[in-house]
């Protein structure tokens, strides 16, 4: 309790302040501040700020920001979003009263930004009228609808055997330098004129790798519908940690406008390592392989945001292609198995196939799409036995290397399999349209290409691709229709293939297998 004299002094002080406010028109505000007690690589510890909330954005000197992450009794562990070399013990820290957010809008299309929304392409400031928190709850199950619309990658082996739908989450995994980013790039290039916004999220990549991706996108005109959200290897672990969440918030903005979005996370291995580094610096207890116990949660809450919204919410979608790097082909390691269980399938790239020059090096046996034919154009069901034929060939091929004498039927399977392998090869940065893919694969499954010598297979493929211009308009329309390809249109395509391949290998017969 105050004494009577103290109460009079307080009353006079408030009266003086009120008079000053009336005379000078100012307002009083209370600002909660603290100070830095220690600085480490990527994190700082702060004292004070008793009212701070979890994941609140804090402001430091030199224009730096951080995220309040550890709320201990006597200090706060803060993830720094910038260079720790600019801060010192004793520097003042202020609360902002908001969580980390990022600018969203159409102005971002064609731009290269960092996870804080700052431009990195020397094209000037990005002006947008809306911001979204980087951490947002995923849409409820009742707000979603089934994945049924295909997202064509332009890669024959994926579109035919491991189809991806709009709203699906398909993991790309394999050892380093096996072509994981190349598959993502082809998929982005194939979205031209398909009304799909693409977001390439580079997490801790080398500057040279990011520059190469950007150059490929610009050279092929893909930056017209692409946003790049970039952190490089020398950036702070805090920026690497928030990078995929920021990119997903941008994707959600477009999805909620009814647009379809493709987002590539390249790669979540670096994301997991950055979070492990932050957790150990914050003295959180390590678990398996020194990763913290919530490493599964940080990836599941990220990928759960990719979905296809119901029609009443606009029907927009986010298709996620997370990339993960395996070590020595170990797909049963901690982080790969986590992500395999979170996603709706995986595309596994084999270093053995890569070394043999079979590109893209997709191991069909270890790859799967849990959505499957539900998100594939019905016309592709005409080549449904392709995966089985290829699996039989791979098994028999291993026996044939021992010099075992083969019967005629087995030799036919092996010769057919060799042509499947050649047809599934595809040059990087050259995605193929549905008609181009389909006429090649239909000729393959019908047995027409079995009579083409192996050395002429590439010439035969090129001739079939050129023949797409001969396909009648009604047949083309049926290729994209939501129904099985009628037999008469299938025969039209086979007749075109037979006629074109006569010029490649005139001796072949004109009969096809059923």
Automatic annotation (TrEMBL):
- Just give the chief location class: membrane
EC numbers on record: 7.1.2.2
Q: What range(s) does the ATPase F1/V1/A1 complex alpha/beta subunit nucleotide-binding domain occupy? A: 154-369
Record's Pfam families? Answer: ATP-synt_ab, ATP-synt_ab_C, ATP-synt_ab_N
PROSITE patterns for this protein: ATPASE_ALPHA_BETA
Note the InterPro entries from the entry: Alt_ATP_synth_F1_asu, ATP_synth_asu-like_sf, ATP_synth_asu_C, ATP_synth_asu_C_sf, ATP_synth_F1_a_nt-bd_dom, ATP_synth_F1_asu, ATPase_a/bsu_AS, ATPase_F1/V1/A1_a/bsu_N
Enumerate the spans annotated as ATPase F1/V1/A1 complex alpha/beta subunit N-terminal domain: 32-97
Q: Tell me which UniProt keywords the record has, alphabetically.
A: ATP synthesis, ATP-binding, Cell membrane, CF(1), Hydrogen ion transport, Ion transport, Membrane, Nucleotide-binding, Translocase, Transport
Q: Which GO terms describe its cellular component?
A: plasma membrane; proton-transporting ATP synthase complex
Assembly, per entry: F-type ATPases have 2 components, CF(1) - the catalytic core - and CF(0) - the membrane proton channel. CF(1) has five subunits: alpha(3), beta(3), gamma(1), delta(1), epsilon(1). CF(0) has four main subunits: a(1), b(1), b'(1) and c(9-12).
Q: Which family is this sequence assigned to?
A: Belongs to the ATPase alpha/beta chains family.
What is the protein name given in its UniProt record? Answer: ATP synthase subunit alpha
- This chain's source organism reads Arundinibacter roseus
